[in-house]
Amino acid sequence: MLAIRIASTGGPAVLEATEVETPSPVAGQILIRHEAIGLNYIDTYHRSGLYPLKLPSGIGLEAAGSVEAVGDGVTRFKVGDRVAYNGTIGAYAEAAVVPAKRAVKVPDGVSLETAAAAMLKGMTAEFLVRRCFHVKPDDRVLIHAAAGGVGQILVQWCKALGATVIATAGSESKLELARQLGADHVIDYGHEDVAVRVNDFTNGQGVAVVYDGVGKDTWVGSLKSLGRRGVMVTFGNASGPVPAFAPLELSAKSLFVTRPKLFDYIATTQELDESAEALFAVLCSGAVKIDIGQTFPLVEARAAHEALEGRKTTGATLLIP
């Protein structure tokens, strides 16, 4: 089968398309024949070495397809089931073996393409708005990179929960997309002072929570945008890691800062199933729609990474085997 592998870390050029033997599931595993593979920013962290992998390695963390074979002892799935997974390295391939306890069934109302685009981004949004910080009606929230894959889901989900959404993006077209998704206010973070604009929109009260997947470039403005006892959720490093800071800096408004990871919120099979159930429910209801902005053939994974890091993508990106 075709698979994308890395033997060293670096830029997109380290992604190598190669032919490998199709794996067979052992006890507790299932073999999934992929129909679509999700591309995520964390993939670039693995490729670059920011999040180290044992090399050589496969790459990619999420995909959806059909169960082709099951290992001994597997009762959770049967051959032919429509399934999706995240968190198992090696998704950039035509097929993969995955622990049965780390995959979920995809309901009939959700396409496999949508599932592949939604597992990591959608479950990230789920834990961010329901568990990391519980967004409530009338909360004011600030969402950075609102036209990105996670950002689009966050805007829609927060609006469905009754929040007032302030969204940032880096171009007028992306700001317009955030408006269409339901954002109440938008800010061009490349040309406007985010904290000043948030102050204007909130009558000086600030926001209850900031969801920031950008990192270094938005850190200072994010902290200044929070209201008293506000929560800073920094969950990504698209512009680089946030700078070191002294805890005393948080004392002016008794702020909280967290750097969460999805996999600590879906650590058990029960948590995984509950997160998937909540995600698929908002997808089936129409409250959240997944925008698949672009697709690339699996063999063109390098071009996909170049587009993602060049901020030339909107919404979700899929690799198609």
UniProtKB/TrEMBL annotation:
Lineage: Bacteria, Pseudomonadati, Pseudomonadota, Alphaproteobacteria, Caulobacterales
Keywords: NADP, Oxidoreductase
SMART domains xrefs: PKS_ER (SM00829)
Keyword Oxidoreductase tagged: yes
Pfam families noted in UniProt: ADH_N, ADH_zinc_N
Gene3D superfamilies xrefs: Medium-chain alcohol dehydrogenases, catalytic domain, NAD(P)-binding Rossmann-like Domain
Domain of life: Bacteria
Protein name stated in the entry: Quinone oxidoreductase
InterPro entries: ADH-like_C, ADH-like_N, ER, GroES-like_sf, NAD(P)-bd_dom_sf, QOR-like, Quin_OxRdtase/zeta-crystal_CS
Domain Enoyl reductase (ER): from-to ranges: 10-319
